Amino acid sequence: MDAIGSTRNRFSEKLLELLDHVEYRRVESGEDMEDVARIRFKAYKMADILPLSGSTLIDDIDFDSHAYVFGIYYEERLISTVRVHHVTPEHRASSSGSVFGKEIDSFLDAGMSLIDPVRLAADPEILKEMPAIPYLTLRVATMASEHFDVDRCLSLVKPQHAAFYKRVFDADTIVSPQKNCGNYKIDLTLLAARVREIRPWLYTRFPFFDSEPFERRMMFNGNERASFTPLTVRPTARLAMTTQHRTRMPL
């Protein structure tokens, strides 16, 4: 094994070790949403991304029927959050669409479906100690992409973060960097990953992104704020690595 491969394996094992202490929680209660707002406030203030007001910390689209808000907990402490939109030709609500509507509509008009992970926010203090938090958080997007069997997973990000999404997800640039986009106070670019095409490669290279079907069902089945939704979901990446003859969506 070459040095790069060895380093990648050590990194993957470190992420799997961190996942052993992680829980994912669908945010449905007012108390949990307040915790999400606090994390967003800390992250947005540090990055100077949005005007800090109640309408940007928690907004109406958080409660859209195709939106899934998650808190990521490490040893029972909230460390990050993400909102995932399942975007379809029939249901087009998404944050990326509000910024780059023409490009998103082009995908949808072609009959494609999308996952739009937005409002990624990590506690800045914990992020300094645990720089792997973005991987733990974006694992939600990989699970959503497989559960809903979408065509693309979007990345609405700062231009300086684009290299990460290209390296990890082989994402394509859809919109080159644009200045002061919409309500955002920063430059943004839009990328999209061809999720079905990259999935076998991604899970081989980064096995911590993998999951079992029952984990994905617990994460995303039903969005009616139903009482049977599990309070927390434990990652199944290690189990997925050892499960033989798994049935996956066709490539």
Question: What does this molecule look like?
Answer:
The protein is an alpha+beta fold and 251 residues long. The protein has one domain (3-239): Gcn5-related N-acetyltransferase (GNAT) (Aminopeptidase). It has eleven helices and seven strands. The chain has helices at residues 3-19, 30-47, 54-57, 95-99, 101-109, 124-129, 133-147, 162-169, 195-205, 213-220, 237-242, and strands at residues 22-26, 67-74, 77-87, 114-122, 152-157, 172-178, 188-193. The chain has a seven-stranded mixed β-sheet with strand order 1-2-3-4-5-7-6, with helices on both faces. Residues 35-192 form the N-acyl amino acid synthase FeeM catalytic core domain. This is N-acyl amino acid synthase FeeM catalytic core domain-containing protein. Pfam families: FeeM (PF21926).
CATH class: Alpha Beta
Radius of gyration: 17 Å
CATH topology: Aminopeptidase
Roughly how many Å apart are the termini?
28 Å
What spatial form do the alpha-carbon principal axes imply?
globular
Helix content: 40-55%
Strand percentage: 15-25%
What does the main sheet amount to? 7 strands, mixed
As residue ranges, the low-confidence spans are 244-251
Tally of separate helices: 11
Order of helices and strands: HEHHEEHHEHHEHEEHHH
**Strands in their spatial order, largest beta sheet:** 1-2-3-4-5-7-6
Average of per-residue pLDDT values: 88
> What count of structural domains?
1
InterPro entries: Acyl_CoA_acyltransferase, FeeM_cat
Protein name: N-acyl amino acid synthase FeeM catalytic core domain-containing protein
Organism: Pararhizobium antarcticum
Domain N-acyl amino acid synthase FeeM catalytic core: 35-192
